[in-house]
Design goal:
By secondary structure, the chain is α+β, with helices and mostly antiparallel strands. It folds into 3 domains: 8-34 and 197-242 and 257-308, no CATH class; 57-191, Beta-Lactamase; 320-470, Reverse transcriptase/Diguanylate cyclase domain (Alpha-Beta Plaits), CATH 3.30.70.270. The protein has helices at 8-55, 60-69, 74-90, 118-122, 141-151, 193-247, 265-311, 322-338, 353-360, 362-379, 399-403, 405-420, 448-470, and strands at 94-100, 109-114, 134-135, 157-163, 166-176, 182-191, 320-321, 343-350, 385-387, 392-398, 433-439. The strands form 2 sheets. The protein has a 6-stranded antiparallel β-sheet with strand order 3-2-1-6-5-4. The longest helix is centred in the middle third of the chain and has 55 residues, at 193-247. It is flat. It comes from Pseudobutyrivibrio xylanivorans. The chain crosses the membrane at residues 12-32. GO terms for molecular function: diguanylate cyclase activity. Residues 341-471 form the GGDEF domain.
Amino acid sequence: MNRFRKPLKRSIFIGSMIFILVLCLFLNILTYSNFRKALYSSYEERITDILVYVHSHIDLDDLSHCVDTLEESEKYKELMTLMDDVVEQFNIHYLYIITPLNGNETDNMLIVLSATTEYEREYHIDEEIVLGYICHDDYSAEMAQAHLNAMNKDEISFQEERSSWGDDYTGFLPLIDSKGKHFALLCVDIDIAEIHDAIQTYTTANVGLIAALGVLFMVLLQLWLNENIITPLTNLEKSVSLFAEIAHDQTDPTKLWLDVPPIHTQNEVEGLYNAISQMSQDMHSYVMNITNMEEKVSNLKTQVNYMDMLAYQDSLTKVKNKAWYDKTSQRVNEEIEEGTAEFAIIMADLNYLKKINDTYGHERGNEYIFGACKEMCQIFSHSPIFRIGGDEFVILLEKLDYMNRNTLLAQIELVFGDSANNTSKEPWQRYSVALGMAIYAPETDKTIEDVFKRADKTMYENKILMKAARE
């Protein structure tokens, strides 16, 4: 019969169960929060990259005029083509430009431009959604107000949206013309069903794992307590109670005997300490595993960024490659169109590379390329250098290096002249380079390619002169 209101066995069981449940709940909340934050951060970075890329190709004043007149311009059509390509390439849900009209339930949104996929164009899906189309009941008053608030900002904002089109994570970039007018929103929708699925899967697995560990720890702890604390103390209590009953009004001293089973206190305390330490270590190991999972997610993001960097880097010289030059050319051409371009190009072509390869081998030829490139990097430390061919390099001079272009050109010619004539060095260490520089002229040059051709022509002429001087 139970003689106590709060038996030690029940109290320890309830206390240990509550402790493990609270700990499991805390770990679940912590890991869920960190995992969700990491996923959404990666989506925000992806959305931001797309918004910035598309925004860089928008003529804001022209588009603002299109919104005012509801008439498509040539630049509007070019932008439409670009946005259609972006939707196809980046596998996003929607890419569109809209102008919030009001915060009402209906007629609250004006469509400026909505990108479509090849499939949608082929089957004429949403073909009526064109410039000037007004959405009647597609946006709730709450969504319309959220778009109005986003358009009045000066930065990118994000919002999770649930609509008839699905669950999306949306990035808003306000479009502002040269007069400071906020006239539209550039929006990117990414389907987040996979985020919800990932979070649900992760949370289910995490809850199951923590619950299993919790139950395991609770069972093991209860067994250990029964064996090392509860049973010995129960036996002791029974022995003491029996002794008290016998000792009451007992007159026979021989019967005043406390029969206590052997109890080794030091071993029990040490065992309890070891069990708690082991449980603590197991819990720590689990938390460390969760932390390692977050670190792996971060490492995956780092690897993606590293792969992006390698895609635009020359493997031998570590300078930018032809792909990055083409990308940079797009940016420079945009500045030429805007009338803000100011730059010069230096073409550099290595001399004797074929002779060194044929005479001393390609390994020495690579040393020759790397060493010559290193000299250029040291002098043009503030300018991008591109390796566009086996022995051809392009140097784009802007800002400070553009202002000091003549000094830098004279310096590099002197460096390569001294190197080529230094007979104390090995042949593959005597760097000889033909150089040609051309300066962007707004009145004649339409694209960066025009400047490139003049620099290449000058370099070729200098190469002929150098060859004639050697002969």
